[in-house]
Structures are given as structure tokens and as C-alpha cells.
Amino acid sequence: MKIASFNVNSINARLPRILDWFDKARPDVCVLQEIKCVDEKFPAGEFEDRGYNVCVHGQKTYNGVALLSKHPFEEPRKGLPLLQDGDDADDHSRYIEAVIMPPGAKVIRVVGIYAPNGNPAPGPKFDYKLKWLKRLKKRVAELLAYEEALIVCGDFNVIPQAEDVYDPKAWSSDALFLPESRAAFRQILNLGLTDAIRQIHPAKTLYTFWDYQAGAWEKDNGIRIDHLLLSPQAADRLKDAGVDRAERGPGKTDVKPSDHVPVWAELA
DNA sequence: ATGCCTGCGGTTCGCAGA
């Protein structure tokens, strides 16, 4: 079973390219981030025509996530729970979850996330990012208690290690690479998750994002911020994982690429 | 040091992204 994650930076601005990629990559399940549209504007029919069941947690202009699955799914959930009752409501669409039920094959729960960027740091946006990651940690801990196959994937907006950024010094004060962000990410990993990309490619430079500005793609000034994290039961099934780097380059049409590329994991 | 580029909403620019 192939599970992918792709921050598309607007589903509707990028649809022909995204569909081209789906026709090549043919993931069983894919979570999308930054769809930048409300549910009614999501081009569900294009994916249904390709055999996907569609679950959308949209938002006007910003954010928005979706989950596409060739197999039936159960227990869909939209939105990340608050830490405690009485906390301010979170109106950003950044979390989606479902249990994938492939007929005659093993079940897996898929969580798709779009973590807040957090810049500028320090500031309220950075506080929101750290609190959001804390909420994610709590949700993941709850799900891990089931001791079942689980994959938490998406745009974490965290550069885990210096080897995941072309110039660590240049990013040292950025919300994506600050020690607090990396610690929050590490705390989620330390619940017992395996980074699928790093498990398969331990020492490789593998970026998933290149800024549109300053020729970042041409200079390979990239960062690795899109991740696929596996519970022990899922990690035992891991066969392969990768980054579809070519999607950052020119496509068949003149539609511009996203600034992120798809990441994927193949499980038995 | 700052902006570079891109998408969106909605109007000819501001916000957000990372």
C-alpha cells in the first residue's frame, strides 16, 4: 500500500499537474495540504473519476487539507482536538484523519496534517505553532495507545536536523528550525514513531521544499519539512519511501509547480 | 538588511507562506 503526502499550494491553481502526478504515482492514499479552498470548491469529481474516495476539510484562501483513498475509509475526523475544554477554538483547517480499510488487506489509520509555519518568531504565530504541535502530540499519543498501524504524515513545517537544510546557519532563527520547534517534533517522534524517509535513506540529502524566491530550486537551496511518521506496527510493514523531487521542475503543462514535492511510503 | 515569488481575494495591493 502506497501512502503519500503533498502540499499542493492551491489545488485549483495546480490541478492539471496534480492529476498528472496522481496518474503516474498512483498512491492508494494521499493527504493534501494547503488546498486553499472551501469543501464545495474542491475538485472531488476529478479524483472520484480516478477511483478515490474523498474527504475534505477545507478553508477559504488559507490552509485546508484533504484525504483521498482508493479504499473505503471509516472514522473520518476533521480538526485537531483542543488541549483542554475552554481553550480558544481553532478555526484553521489543518488536520484530517481516517481509518483505511482495504478489502482483504491490512488496515491503517492515516493522519494528514498541515502544521503552522510559525514565523515570525518569537510572536503569537510561533506560540500558535508550538501549541498546535503540543495538541498533535497529545492526539498521536491517544492513537498510539491502540497499538495499531498508524501513519502521521504531512507538512510539519519543522526541519528536524541540520542535514535537512542546505544552510543551517541561514535558518537558525527561523520558526522551522528553532530549537523549540525541533524539540516539539522530536517529542512526537519520541512517542515511538519512525521517520519513514530517514529509515529508508539514512544519510541522503532529501529536500521536500524549495522557496519560489531567489532561485532556490535552481541552486538546490531546499529544506526537508514534509514527513511520514510510522507507528511500530506500520514501521514493521515499511518496504520503501521516497521524495518525488522531479515534481518541483517543469511539468507537461505550463502550470507552475508547488513549492513542495510529494513524499510517499510503501507498506506491505 | 530587505526583497526576491506565488496564490488568493478582490481590486490594482495586502496577507501569508517558509
Can you put this structure into words, describing what you see?
- With 268 residues, the protein is of the alpha+beta class.
- The chain contains 6 helices and 14 strands.
- The chain has helices at residues 15-25, 44-48, 124-144, 179-189, 196-200, 232-235; strands at 2-7, 29-33, 53-57, 65-69, 73-78, 95-100, 108-114, 150-155, 194-195, 209-210, 222-223, 226-230, 238-243, 263-267.
- It has a 6-stranded mixed beta sheet. A 6-stranded mixed beta sheet has the order 5-6-7-8-12-9.
- Helix 3 (124-144) packs parallel to helix 4.
- The longest helix has 21 residues, at 124-144.
- The mean pLDDT is 97.
- The protein binds one DNA strand of 18 nucleotides through loops.
Low-pLDDT stretches are none
**Average pLDDT, to the nearest integer?**
97
**Helix/strand class:** alpha+beta
Reported for the largest beta sheet, the result is:
6 strands, mixed
Short précis:
Helix content is 21%, strand content 25%. The chain has helices spanning 15-25, 44-48, 124-144, 179-189, 196-200, 232-235, and strands at 2-7, 29-33, 53-57, 65-69, 73-78, 95-100, 108-114, 150-155, 194-195, 209-210, 222-223, 226-230, 238-243, 263-267.
Task: Outline the secondary-structure elements.
Blueprint (H helix, E strand, L loop, with lengths): L1 E6 L7 H11 L3 E5 L10 H5 L4 E5 L7 E5 L3 E6 L16 E6 L7 E7 L9 H21 L5 E6 L23 H11 L4 E2 H5 L8 E2 L11 E2 L2 E5 L1 H4 L2 E6 L19 E5 L1
Parallel strand pairs: 1-2, 7-8
Antiparallel strand pairs: 1-14, 2-4, 3-4, 5-6, 6-7, 8-12, 9-12, 10-11, 13-14
This protein binds one DNA strand of 18 nucleotides through loops.
